[in-house]
Amino acid sequence: MIIGIAGGSGAGKTTVARTVAERMGEENVGYLSQDWYYLDHSNMSEEEIAKENLDHPDAFDSKLLVKHLRELKEGKSIDVPIYDFNTHSRINSGMILKPKGVIVLEGILVLAIEELRSMLDFLIYVDADADIRLIRRMERDIKERSKTYDETIKRYLSSVKPMHDAFVEPSKRFADIIVPRGGDNELATDLLSDFVEHYTIHKSL
Fold first, then answer.
1. CATH 3.40.50.300 fits 2-204, yes or no
2. Exposed, middle or buried: residue 52 (CB in 10 Å: 0-12, 13-18, 19+)?
């Protein structure tokens, strides 16, 4: 089973995805992030990168991601790429992900891209208030991605919010389950983990 977890930037989808994966254990659940599949931008200058829309579906190598999901379903291992946000380049991580009973894929546009959505067995949308998402986005970009306050706000207004309104929020209608309050909703995360655990046990019998 492949679980797709979508939601706006800073909604808490990574927290939900990792909580499920960690609770079930690495032997049962594999974790994938759509962020790892950003197209390579290493040949672009900082000025060009600043103008690049990284929140549009075309920013991702969805063809490769779909190929990898198909291979996992076929029982094959995949060589997972990693996108370095500091150098804006996609690198070979050397990390091999083996097929598992459950794969958790999270990303802002997991439910918005039809080719990806068709590969998913269970669709989840993690929701959170816009102000909470903005605060989390600012904290992450400034602390983890070496961005300034001005850079973070400019990108939020120029691409993050418009793309959220155009693609991310509308994809909510495809979800089987909507998790309100994002990663802070421990009850919803526990229920989701219980579902995955039950599914895994049932499939193994």
1. yes
2. middle
Per DSSP, helices labelled H in the chain are: 13-24, 46-51, 62-73, 114-117, 130-144, 149-155, 161-163, 186-204
pLDDT tens, position by position, 60-79: 999 999 999 999 999 999 99
What span, in angstroms and rounded, lies between the C-alpha atoms of 1 and 13?
A: 18
Q: What is the pLDDT of residues 7-30, one digit of tens each?
A: 998 888 888 888 888 877 778 889
| DSSP secondary structure of 149-184 | HHHHHHHIIIIIHHHIIIIIGGGGGG-SEEETTGGG
pLDDT at 199 over 70: no
